[in-house]
Structure formats: structure tokens, C-alpha cells
Amino acid sequence: MNALNRLLGRWWRLLLCLAWIWALGGILQNERYLAFLRPEFGYVIGLGVFVLLGFLVTGIGDARQPGFDIPCALRASILCLPLAHLMNAQGVSLDSYAFRNRFLGPPSVGMTAPQPSRPGEPLPTEPPFSDRDATIGSEEPSDPPSSAATEDGAEKIPEPIPVTIVDLYYSPGIYEGKRVRLVGMLQKNDARVKELLGKDMLVVFRFVINCCAADASPAAVLVDGDTSPDISDDTWVEVEGVFRIQQVEEQRAPMIDHATLKAITPPRHPYLLP
Amino acid sequence: MRGGPGGAPAGPKGTPSPFLAKLLAAFRHAADDFFAIGHFLVIGAFIAALAQTYIDRKLFIGLSAYPVLPSLMMIALAILLNLCSEADAFIAASFRGLMPLPAQMAFMLIGPMFDLKLLLMYQGVFRRRAIAMLASLILAAVLIAVLGMGIVLGGTK
Q1: Chain B residues whose beta carbon lies within 8 Å of the beta carbon of residue A60
Q2: CB–CB of B1 and A61 under 8 A?
């Protein structure tokens, strides 16, 4: 028993360091940290791996022979818990459950529209929030295409403008009445929406994060359109339709009208970043 | 390879190079700290995750309308949770947007100075009167600070 105690006392820290290095290296290599962190924070995880390697090297050379008692076992078990979670939570990001807990009803748009920093300066043309996926937000938001007639006189449906949900919050005036296309997760039959509007309406949402999933806030739009029953809650969808502002009590809620939805593969970066 | 302090490799004359010895000593000290308090951070993260998962934000809308109640609630939470200052920051971040900024600040200020764990430790060193004085001073100072902050910032979250 004493030999086992000495053996565990000598090696438990090193084994724990190895396990953490393996786990952090794994989520860094597979970019799984994007499910709960900003992409830039990959460097911080890399720094963590470096520090753990330092712990490992000093631990190997440590001549101390501490014992392994119950408090040690408890500490080691608690430090193993995040590793168990990392193994179980593969490919999981915030979804409609978090949305229901954090969503406070249809938001009011245009409340924090960007202002020129000095009188006379033009408004910023870059959207204040970014979607790191190359397919969305790559076009100039302030130059939307307008309706045009074809040679045979029929009205041509304009190409939708790729936007993020938060672009609609910040600059509703730019997009109102225009066809837009955006990506988000689908939420059907939201109780608060039904309570406010008196009818069921689809909601498409994404989370905006500053640092990590702990500070994620939902950004949502109402969607008036039909969807296939095959598309369930938490499915990533691409929505195309006409953006307009719906008055809900005293709030101006963003809405996509005459919308069509199609299921898409989840984007590489699930969150919107300021 | 055990030529110097902290197991630092020996130099040509049997002594570790000063920079390497200091670096290894720093890593060893950091490792001791990590294994001594790291579990508090995990517990803090777990409580934060529970709060994020099970607390409906709607509950806080009514509460944050009162001027002092959110700060008092967050002070009580900080005392009861017994978290280290790193975990305090983690948990305070989870209340971003839910509670007024002064209440989050109250949580951050109280945690490192006064909690149940520290109260037990103080009893081994100080008399009860001194502990009561210390606790009263900390609570009063934090309350005054967050009330002042509330007056300046209004209902900022």
C-alpha cells in the first residue's frame, strides 16, 4: 500500500499534465475549441499546452516524494472532469435550449445603429459584426442590388444580399424592403413569440460572443415563411426573403418576409463575432 | 539531471544555468499553484455552467429593476460559493447582460476578500471581534463602491 501510495504521489501530477496536453492539443488540432471560443483564442490554448509541457518537464525532475492522500485524489478527480466533458461534447455548440434560456423576446432593431465618430464623417461601411464564413458577408452591404426588368418585361427577382442577423439589427434602414440572405439556427414554436404576436412564427437565431460561450447572447429574426417538416429545431438553415420591420408592441422586431428556408451544413464558425 | 533547484539540469560546472534554473523554478511554482487551486477553477466553471444552463434570464429582468437587491444577491452568492478569484471572474462573466454592472462588480470585489472559506481560516488567526470588524468593513466598502458605481452608470449591464 505504501509503495502504491508513493507511486501515485510521484506520478499523478505528470499523468494529469499528459492528459491535459493530449486534450488541449486535440481540440486545437481539430479546431473543436471553435464551439466555445473565439478563433483568436487558439493561441491561448497553445500557450496552455506550452505551460503544461513546462509543468511536465519540471515534474519529471522534481526530487520531492509527496504522498497520495484522499484530498489529492479528490483534486485529481476534479481536474479530470473537464477532460471527460471534452471527450463527450464533440461537435456540440450552443443551440435552441440555450436560445430559449437567454432569449428575451423579439429584439428592437436600430437601437444601436453606428454613428459617425465626428460630425461630417461618413458612417462606417463595414458591418460591426462579422461572420467568419467566407460565403456570408463577402459583399458590400451598402450597395444592394435593386429590382430590374428583363428584356421581355418580366420583373427579375433581385439577388439577395448576404447579411448577418446583427447587420439587420445595426443597419435596418439599409436593408429594409430588400431581399436578404442569412444563415442561422432554426427555432419553431417559440412560446414568447407566440405570446407577443398571437401566432406561431419561425425564429432564426445565432449567438454573438465576445470571448467565449459563457457570454454568448442570442441574435434572432422572425421568419414568415413555410418550412419543410423535415427541418427540425437546431437545424442550420439559409433563409432568403424580404427584410422588413415588424412592430411588436413598442418594439421594432426584425423580420424576414416571404421567406424560403433550406437546410445547410453547419458553418465552420457557429458564432458571430464583434 | 537533478543538478540544481527544481530539478534544473546542471551546467558545465555542476550548477544550472541561472536563466534555466529560474525558468524551471517558475514552472515548478506555477505547477504547485495549479494543482493546489486548479480544482477551485473547475468547480467555479461547473457552477457557472449550471447557472448558464438552468437559470432563465427572464428571472433576472424583474430583479435587476431594483436598485440594491441585485448587488446584495451577488454579494451573498460570492460569500457562499467560496471561489478563488480566477473562478470569480469566470462566474461574473456568466452574469454579463443579466445583472447590472455594479452587481457584477460587487461579486468580483467580495469574492477574493471575504467568503466562507476565508471566514474559517480567519478564525484560526484572528479574534471574533476582529473578524466581525473586517467583514463589516469589507461589506460596507463594497456596498458603497457599487452604489456609487450604480449612481454613475445607471442601469448599465
Answers
A1: 7
A2: yes
A157 contacts A179 by C-beta, under 8 angstroms: yes
Question: Is A79 within 8 Å of B38 when comparing Cβ atoms?
Answer: yes
Does B96 contact A at CB distance below 8 Å?
yes
Whether the pLDDT of residue A183 is over 60: the answer is: yes
Residue range A73-88, pLDDT digits in tens: 898 999 999 988 887 7
In B139-153, which positions are buried (b, 16+ CB within 10 angstroms) versus exposed (e)?
beebbeebeebbeee
Q: Cβ distance A133 to A238 under 8 Å?
A: no
* Backbone Cα Rg of chain B: 21
Q: Which amino acid, residue B35?
A: F
pTM comes to 0.69
> What 8-state DSSP symbol labels residue A116?
-
Whether residue A66 contacts residue B13, with contact meaning beta carbons closer than 8 Å, is answered with no
Q: Is A113 on the interface with B (CB under 8 A)?
A: no
**What is the DSSP-derived secondary structure letter of residue A271?**
S
A217:B97 CB<8 A: yes
- The pLDDT averaged over each successive group of 10 residues in chain B (157 residues) is 45 72 90 83 74 72 74 83 66 72 89 77 81 93 91 70
Cα angle B114, B116, B122 (rounded to 5 degrees) comes to 70
| Chain B residues whose beta carbon lies within 8 Å of the beta carbon of residue A97 | 53
Indicate whether this complex's ipTM tops 0.85: no
- The rounded distance, in Å, linking the Cα atoms of B81 and B34 is 20
C-alpha distance from residue A95 to each of A36, A98, A100, A187, B80 (Å)? 12, 6, 9, 9, 31
Distance CA B113, CA B70 (A): 19
- Cα distance from A144 to chain B (closest Cα, Å)? 33
Coil vs helix vs strand at B116: helix
Q: Determine whether the interchain pair A75/B38 forms a contact, defined as Cβ–Cβ distance below 8 Å.
A: yes
- In order, the DSSP letters of B50-100 are HHHHH--THHHHHHTTSSSHHHHHHHHHHHHHT--HHHHHHHHHHTTTTS-
Q: What is the DSSP letter of B144?
A: H
